[in-house]
Write the structure tokens for this entry.
Amino acid sequence: MSDKNALIQPDRGQKATAIHLVDKDGLEAFLKDRTPAQRATLEAQKFAADGYTHAVFPDGEGWAVAAGVANAASLSSWCMARLADVLPGGTYRRAGGEPGAAMLGWITGQYRFDRYKSDAADDAPRILLTGEPRAIDATIAEAEAIELVRDLVNTPAEDMGPGQLEAEAEALGKAFGGQVRITRGDLLEREFPMVQMVGRAAGRAHAPRMIELEWGDAKNPRLAIIGKGVCFDSGGLDIKPSSAMLLMKKDMGGAAHALALARLVMGAQLPVRLHLLVPAVENAVAGNAFRPGDVLKSRAGISVEVGNTDAEGRLVLADALTRAGEGADGKLPDLVIDFATLTGAARVALGPDLPALFAREDATAQALLDGGAAADDPCWRLPLFDGYREMLKSDIADINNAGSGGFAGAVTAALFMDRFVPKGIDWAHFDTFAWRPAAKPGRPKGGDALGLRAAWHMLQRRYAKG
């Protein structure tokens, strides 16, 4: 991957190739201002200002680029991303304006996951200049957070187990002065019994643990960020078919989002008391695997009947949500946000690009939706519908981890988790895919951040300094 800090640079009049962003409404005027030779060159390439298309044309002693965008007056994060992928290495600037939001896609469009390739391409970087240098650091921070999610999710489970997630949290704590606490072994069984039960079959090599990081002034509002850290999900004894298991390295995508969001919060010195929690496990098959029909203890004291061992993510999140809801320093959390690759039902309902959002408070839900709209990171709210709580009834325990009847799987999963969040606490839950099955400009196939920037833009507004 190219050095992200080098991909966006202040414009100090350096020699650079001009990029003209043209929409359909402005195409006629743009062509009118070109020379006959330039118009002929553009026409020969059939340039019609369609989105994500471009053409090159002579410009003095060099050349320039015409690129089609949906709206040249309001740029999306991704409108220049394809250019960053296909143009030759060099330095570029937008002609007649600033790249604005498109700087993010310029960076993420040059992302490559080549850790395991012996012949990885050493592409020359495409550098974009901007006359708004104050926007550079914030853009790079967001791009780094997105690419952290991608790197973690793309890494195979053998190299991204609970121990590696612990190492990521330790690195964050060291970088930003946070305090990291790891709970494992007998203490894990006592303090987070469902995390221990779900992960115990993975053995010592991928032993379960609860990862916690605290950062910031204890006088500030407490913000809990939680991520599902199931580093590989076989389904347990309710084992998945091979086709469904193939992508299960991404089942720690929620943890990747949580780590990345925590990095943004600490890097921006947001005035909060951050509490990051990652229950890190592998849902494996062995003689000591938890079984369908078992009744599990939880940190909250709520007994849980296992209706399906493949509904393990909500179990480990339940213990984490309980811990977050306890607060510390005499203060309960002001807000709890969790990310999880939780249900196939959410993908059936919304597809791969839209994370399902659940929230107790309408104002919080709307703020997250608004943050997503502003950041080109859309999400869609689904209901915490009380009428479906009866689907989680158990004949022998307080609650069942799998809803009966096969309906509303994403809703019943969220309702299960809601049971473990103390009443009165503002809580939001992202059921995200963390994966792109097909590439889009600035968003390659593979692991990706979906819902991350929506949450980040909301948090910046909610906890704005001064």
Remarks:
- DSSP finds 16 helices and 20 strands in the chain.
- Residues 4-132 form a domain with the Leucine Aminopeptidase, subunit E; domain 1 fold (CATH 3.40.220.10).
- The chain has a mean pLDDT of 97.
